[in-house]
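Revision sheet: C-alpha cells.
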Amino acid sequence: MKKIDENTDKTKQSLHEKMQALRQSLANNPAEAKAFLQKTGILTKSGKLTKHYQ
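Predicted:
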C-alpha cells in the first residue's frame, strides 16, 4: 500500500507544480489569462463573465 501512496504523493506534487507554473504564466501575461478564461468558458469573447458566473 505504501507504493501507491508514494505514487499518489508524486502525482499530487507534479500537478501542484504544473498549476503553480500556469498561475505564474497567467499572472505575468494578461492577454494569455484572458484567453485562458475564454477557453474555459468563464469569459465571453468580449471579456464579460458568462451567464453561469454572473
